[in-house]
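Entry: PAS domain-containing protein
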Amino acid sequence: MDSSIVALKREKRILLENYLNENLPRYETTFMENEDAVYALDLDGHFLQINPACEKILGIQVDQIGEITFQKLVPVDDLHRVFQNFHEAFEGKVQNHDYKIAKGGHHVYLNVTTLPIVVNDEVVGIYGIAKDITALKERNAKNRKEHRKFINY
């Protein structure tokens, strides 16, 4: 990778880490007590901060911070769409989409909102909020199946 790109990413990551360290304490209760998974990603998609719900919903352990990327959670078939949506978030656009992720041998459906983290007028990372909608998706699928049975009767 071009050394100027590496240097720029490193500079933005430092800005992001400083921003998170300075600002998270103000919102710590909202962050830590939120039932939805709340996290911060750097420009390479590494998780830098996660709340306790991330472990439950996404299956990410605190000791994996900085090592695991969102790409490892997404099935290969959905990666292109996820990359497209994250790219738009990196361009400064708030995104909201439903995704399927792999967790412990099964799939979990999420409604994910991504927001750019802007420092000095530059996007340096992304905040994500992920709500587990698996039960809703399964209930809707069951209702559609029952509706089809009724119509075919």
